[in-house]
Automatic annotation (TrEMBL):
PROSITE patterns in alphabetical order: HTH_ARAC_FAMILY_1, HTH_ARAC_FAMILY_2
Organism: Pedobacter jejuensis
Ranges where the HTH araC/xylS-type domain occurs: 187-285
Matches recorded under Pfam families: AraC_binding, HTH_18
Gene Ontology molecular function: DNA-binding transcription factor activity; sequence-specific DNA binding
Taxonomy, superkingdom: Bacteria
UniProt KW keywords: DNA-binding, Transcription, Transcription regulation
Protein name, entry field: AraC family transcriptional regulator
């Protein structure tokens, strides 16, 4: 599942694009682009992949995706196969960080936006208590024209930058620089993991995918990502376990198996290390019975 680079073309008469999407399969693949993306979901549910983060998405969610950060939203099958009764609906904005000129973000007054753009490199999920207000501002951008549209977008981004809390999605060690000439090997590694993390993965197997010995691969991966391969794999598995807990359809034994852990003890240890809480605490925090 190699991330595909998308060229999102802005209309010449506009400095950024804003549109409504009503199709579950539009860009429904692992992709990235230079433009920053701000999206709010009105209808539709599924699984969200942002960098190495996996979680549910649904109506009311608002997400800010930085430049070149791989992502995709995999809609649940009912939205792919039964459009008549399950039509997804989202509003999405794409803009370059310099859409107001190269110097705008360097202005003293733009310091909070500059910090926001830096955080967006890992993806930002707006907290539920703030998402409704931000979604309304996104709609104001869509319904505006001319200079007012720019003002509305700045107002929206400023509001996000002032929020005291938000959820950062991709881990700090995730590498989002996907230049073909230097990252094809990392692409292959990442694609293999995203497709196989539910199964047992041997270091020899993934080292072979990279065309390296195990020792060389381990050094290479740590240098490129800032974390060991096994830590990276654990991040993916725990992220998926979190999604399954929130789905509330499986018991913990099945969640353990479906997320790629051999036993509950292994899941419990990694879950607490990565999230700072036990699976039980996570369920209680989200009011899962």
């Amino acid at each position: 599942m190699k991330p595909q680079h998308l060229n999102i073309i802005n209309v010449e008469s506009q400095s950024f694009s804003v549109r409504k999407d009503f199709y579950a399969n539009i860009n429904n693949r692992w992709h990235y682009h230079k433009q920053i993306e701000l999206i709010t979901f009105h209808k539709g549910t599924g699984t969200q992949f942002v960098g190495d983060n996996i979680r549910n998405f649904g109506p009311g969610d608002v997400v800010l995706i930085g430049s070149d950060l791989p992502h995709y939203w995999k809609y649940d099958s009912c939205f792919l196969n039964d459009k008549e009764n399950h039509e997804p609906y989202s509003t999405v904005i794409h803009f370059f960080d310099n859409f107001l000129g190269d110097r705008f973000l360097m202005l003293p007054e733009s310091s909070s936006l500059r910090s926001l753009m830096e955080l967006a490199k890992r993806g930002i999920l707006i907290k539920a208590k703030d998402a409704t207000a931000i979604a309304a501002k996104i709609e104001s951008v869509y319904n505006s024209q001319g200079i007012v549209r720019i003002i509305q977008l700045l107002d929206c981004l400023n509001a996000i930058s002032k929020m005291p809390e938000h959820t950062i999605l991709a881990s700090i060690g995730f590498k989002q620089d996907f230049k073909e000439y230097e990252n094809e090997r990392m692409d292959n590694i990442y694609n293999f993991v995203i497709s196989n993390f539910k199964n047992k993965i041997e270091l020899e197997e993934v080292a072979s995918i990279a065309g390296m010995s195990v020792s060389s691969f381990c050094r290479y991966f740590k240098t490129r990502t800032g974390k060991t391969f096994m830590n990276f794999l654990a991040d993916m598995r725990v992220g998926y376990a979190c999604k399954l807990i929130l789905d509330n359809k499986l018991n913990m034994k099945n969640i353990c198996h479906e997320s790629g852990f051999n036993n509950f003890s292994c899941l419990h240890k990694n879950f607490k290390t990565i999230t700072g809480m036990t699976p039980k605490d996570y369920r209680q925090q989200h009011n899962i019975k």
